[in-house]
Amino acid sequence: MTVTLILSFCISFVCTYAFGKIYIPWLVKQKFGQEIKLIGPYWHDKKRGTPTMGGVMFIFGILIACITAGFSSIRQGRLVHLFIFAFALVFGAIGFLDDWEKLKHKANLGLSGWVKLTLQLVAAFIYIFFMIRLGYITSHLYIPFFNVSINIPIWLYIVISTFAIVGTVNSVNLTDGLDGLATGTSIPVFLFFTAVAFLWGDSFLEAGIFSSAMMGGLFAFLIYNFNPAKVFMGDTGSLFLGGAVAAMAFVYDMPLILLTIGIMYIIETLSDIIQVSYFKLTHGKRIFKMAPFHHHLEMGGWIGRKWKEKQIFALFTSVSLLFAILSFIGIMKRY
Question: 3-class secondary structure for the chain?
């Protein structure tokens, strides 16, 4: 199992990195550059024109790793890693359509919010329903740290799970606002899922293959995405990433672990919700200098000192790693 997980990581890393050498110059040639929100920090304007849709790079690397490192599993009919990939790819396709609309209109507005939300809800519902029918997911809601499960009605589980997946996907997307931020924040998340597969044994090998491939692809992508970024993942990458995070939590049949493993995604989302709600209630007052939270730090919120992008990257990645370790402790006694 150890060899397979390492192989999956290495294949994904090499394929993603090598593909980036060809793909990024092609994006530049096609003038597929990122547009910048006018309401964002003014210094982000220098990023205008940086190639976007870079998520295709690690999606490609992960696919190759899942097929090659997971070939033996595929021959045995054990296809969980491909199911996870397919689900994440659906969200990546929604992100691709969004990115394409932005590029076509040369603006930072893609698909309408209602269109994206509808597509995401349908994709999430189909995934949960499909995985329950195949027996990979149960309606026994596992509670980490307490090591107990609560049985809830299947229809209620499906409804809650559908909205939980969509919320997770969009939270990850919201985190993708600075160079390398979503990438660095997510690497510890997939390190956690890989460690869980190793801990729980061969029954979770395929899930481990996918999560290890995700790590390899993200590490390779970070070489290009770290500040100053040579490429952005775009919604193609961030929605794929969000779909992968959500799918992994449900494949392990412990969706509540998202509350700890996804702590930085949650903070980003809550800061946005709090900001908008408070602004409307007080007719123009703000709690944060700008939402989501990474922009608040960037603009010198609370401590009066403007954080640099690399400092915010280090903060988010470190907190994510800390909570990954905490989450691992919380599920160690499950099996």
Answer: CHHHHHHHHHHHHHHHHHHHHHHHHHHHHHCCECCCCCCCCHHHHHHCCCECCCHHHHHHHHHHHHHHCCHHHHHCCCCHHHHHHHHHHHHHHHHHHHHHHHHHHCCCCCCCHHHHHHHHHHHHHHHHHHHHHCCCCCCEEEECCCCEEEECCHHHHHHHHHHHHHHHHHHHHHHCCCCCHHHHHHHHHHHHHHHHHHHHCHHHHHHHHHHHHHHHHHHHHHHHHCCCCCCCCHHHHHHHHHHHHHHHHHHCCCHHHHHHHCHHHHHHHHHHHHHHHHHHHCCCCCCCCCCCHHHHHHCCCCCCCCCCHHHHHHHHHHHHHHHHHHHHHHHCCCC
**What is the rounded end-to-end Cα distance, in angstroms, of the chain?**
18
pLDDT of residue 135: 83
**Can you give the pLDDT at residue 44?**
62
pLDDT value of residue 41: 62
pTM comes to: 0.93
Q: Among 239, 214, 233, 232, which Cα is nearest to 94's?
A: 239
pLDDT confidence of residue 107: 59
Q: Report residues of the chain scoring pLDDT below 50.
A: none
Domain boundaries, the chain: 2-257
- What per-residue confidence (pLDDT) applies to 334? 83
Residue whose C-alpha is closest to residue 75's, from 84, 83, 63, 67: 67
Q: Give pLDDT tens digits for 89-122.
A: 999 999 999 888 877 766 566 677 888 899 999 9
